Structure formats: C-alpha cells, structure tokens
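Lay summary. Proteins are chains of building blocks that fold into shapes, and those shapes determine what they do. In this project we predict the shape from the chain. Here is one chain we studied, written as its sequence of building blocks.
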Amino acid sequence: KECTKKSAQKRVRKNTLDQYEMILSFMEEDVWYQAIDFIDLLKLKKRRIQVLMKDLLNEGKIIDNGYTKGKKYKKI
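And here is the predicted shape, written in a compact code that computers can read:
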C-alpha cells in the first residue's frame, strides 16, 4: 500500500521547478507564446517544453488557446 501511495504523489525535481520558473518569468502579460519560443531559452527539445507547458496549464498558471495544432499559451 505504501508503495502505491508514494507513486500517486508526483515528485517534481528542482531542475523541473527551475524550468517552470524560467518559463513564467519569460512570459509577459497578454502575449501568446508557442512551445518553440522557449527552445533557445531552456535549451530543451520542443516535446519536453510541451510537457512543461501542460503541467503549468494543469496548475492554473497559464491558459491555452484551445487548438491542437498551433497551440499557444498565455500567462494568467
């Protein structure tokens, strides 16, 4: 039981928290961004940035435009 309880809680590494912080501090109010806008900033692949953006979306830190292709994000 203890094992399943631990795996249910998502543990976020410090590196990932730093990446969230970099994204949020880079974003300006009322400006829409795509995942590719963060490739040079974070030195990460587009897919990893998309995962980070989805996490921020689920946390309620950012919103998206609702599209699948051409998805854009904005800070709340």
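What the prediction tells us: Residues 4 and 20 are 27 Å apart (CA to CA).
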